[in-house]
Amino acid sequence: MELQGLFVPLLWIVFLGGMVMSAAIGSILAYHWMRFSASPPIAFATIVVYAAGCVVLLGVMFASIVAL
Amino acid sequence: MSHTTFNIQHDEQVLLTLRKHWFMLVRDAIGVIFVGMLLPVLGSLALSVMDPVSNTVAALFIFVFTAWFLLVWIALAIIWTNHYLDMWVITDRRIVHVEQVRLFVREVTTLPLERVQDATLRYNGFIETMLDFGTIHVQSAGADENEVIMHGMPHPNDVKRMILGLVDEFREHHVYARPPEERSRHSFQSD
């Protein structure tokens, strides 16, 4: 089965949208964690875990588009 | 202790910092996790019916599932933020209730110990009783009705006992230690 026309570009748009959204919301969350957390190490660890999760998921999305 | 939410005075001692019970986080997150798992489970069932599955279809399904998981991941991060940034701080002078209502909406309520009139405790149901968490309602004696309601408080009986003990101790040292004329003036101001 071959994907035709604008389908693959549409997937790239979804991927880029996911990347921008996770970065934008991540920035807002990181602001809250760093500004209001009582414990900077926990705030930092939360940012690392969030970013790692996003990178893994976006990486899988990227790989699956490339594999199409 | 971060001073970005409220100011601790230099001679004020923080006695206890509390966060909501972990079950409150699970309760808030369980719906998102359930809905998050639903689409992949249904999709996997659909894939198992299709035979054979081409690499293109498999890659497409993986893309859709992963995009869905990204949304779930972001939703969980927001739920965690609202949970983690809720906090109660009990000092030797006051009770501070910090509530992260949602992103960019934050409430900080302060109740001086001299204003505390009573504290009531409520276990609401089987789970709260078994896991030992509940709601503490600290009532103010002032006319401004500056009261603090703390949901999901772990070990609420101990916390309530501590608050009432601190109030008694505070009054003993700060009110009853004064001459009678000052004492009456103080109680008049408090009322």
Hey, roughly how much beta strand do the residues of chain B contain?
25-35%
Major pleated sheet of chain A: none
Global mean pLDDT of chain A: 90
The structural class of chain B is alpha+beta
Structural features, described:
The complex is a heterodimer of chains A (68) and B (191). Helix content of chain A is 85%, strand content 0%. In chain A, helix 1 (7-36) packs antiparallel against helix 2. Chain A has 68 residues and is mostly helical. Chain A is built from two helices and no strands. The relative contact order of chain B is 0.14. The model of chain B is unreliable at 186-191 (pLDDT under 50). The A-B interface holds A 1-3, 11, 14-15, 18, 21-22, 25-26, 28-29, 32-33, 35-38, 42, 46, 50, 53-54, 57-58, 60-61, 64-65, 67-68 and B 1-2, 4-5, 17, 54-57, 59-60, 62-63, 66-67, 69-70, 73-74, 77-78, 80-81, 84-85, 87, 98, 100, 103, 106.
List keywords for this structure.
heterodimer, A: 68 residues, mainly alpha, 2 helices, 85% helix, elongated, B: 191 residues, alpha+beta, 4-stranded antiparallel β-sheet, 3-stranded antiparallel β-sheet, 5 helices, 49% helix, disordered C terminus
Write the layout of secondary structure elements.
The complex is a heterodimer of chains A (68) and B (191).
Chain A (H helix, E strand, L loop, with lengths): L6 H30 L3 H28 L1
Helix pairs in contact in A: 1-2
Chain B lengths: L13 E5 L3 H28 L5 H30 L2 E5 L2 E9 L2 E8 L3 E7 L3 H6 L1 E8 L7 E7 L1 H19 L5 H11 L1
Antiparallel strand pairs in B: 1-2, 2-3, 3-4, 5-6, 6-7
Helix pairs in contact in B: 1-2
